[in-house]
Design brief:
Rossmann fold; eight-stranded mixed sheet; globular; 210 residues; alpha/beta
Length: 210
């Protein structure tokens, strides 16, 4: 958290949703709102995960307001784990309550990338999405939804070469039918140990592209 971080509580279908909102520095032009989803809650995933925090910092540095939220049963968020269904519903609640209009970006890490893809399937037909970031997408464990072709140029798919939680091959199998490029971090692990500055720089480069 930083001096511009605000703690929010929203009302979702299963009860309270705990949210952190990170704002750009005062005076910085606001580009829009980014909603970021964290890794699997049954394996210790929270909105304070280091990769999720790195994504938030990259968005904030690029002028986006960054929203992180805890999935059901994590921290102060009520409810129980729902295998992605309720989590996607809560993702949509965060968008509806905190970013009802204007430029919108979505990001997710691991299980969070799967949840984000499910929320995107609902949002894409009615809402313009300006930027998408998939990190360590859990394509070997869940049915990550395919992306609308018109969003490919706005999408970054980032994966570690030596990810031992989600094999790179699984992400390639997901991306190949879509002809969707994948950016591979050489030597990268699932949690990008020792490579978070590189992760941030790659995301910053994506966010700066028009």
């Amino acid at each position: 958290m930083n001096a511009q971080t605000e703690r929010l509580q929203l009302q979702g279908a299963a009860g309270r949703i705990e949210v952190l909102r990170d704002a750009p520095a005062p005076g910085q032009v606001l580009r829009g709102v980014a909603v970021i989803a964290h890794p699997h809650p049954l394996f210790g995933g929270t909105m304070d995960n280091k990769v999720v925090q790195t994504l938030a910092r990259a968005f904030v540095q690029s002028g986006w307001q960054a929203l992180r939220f805890n999935f059901r049963g994590v921290g102060a968020t009520e409810g129980v784990h729902d295998e992605g269904r309720g989590e996607a519903e809560d993702f949509l609640t965060v968008v509806r309550e905190c970013a009802p209009e204007g430029p919108l970006a979505l990001a997710g890490f691991s299980f969070g990338a799967f949840v984000m893809s499910q929320a995107l399937a609902t949002l894409a037909p009615t809402r313009q999405i300006d930027k998408l970031v998939f990190v360590g997408a859990a394509a070997s464990r869940f049915q990550v939804a395919a992306l609308p072709p018109e969003l490919h140029e706005r999408t970054l798919v980032l994966h570690g070469e030596h990810d031992d939680t989600v094999p790179l091959a699984a992400v390639m199998d997901w991306a190949r039918p879509q002809v969707l490029p994948v950016t591979v971090v050489p030597g990268g692990s699932h949690f990008f140990h020792g490579q978070l500055p590189l992760l941030k720089s790659v995301v910053l480069r994506h966010l700066s592209a028009t």
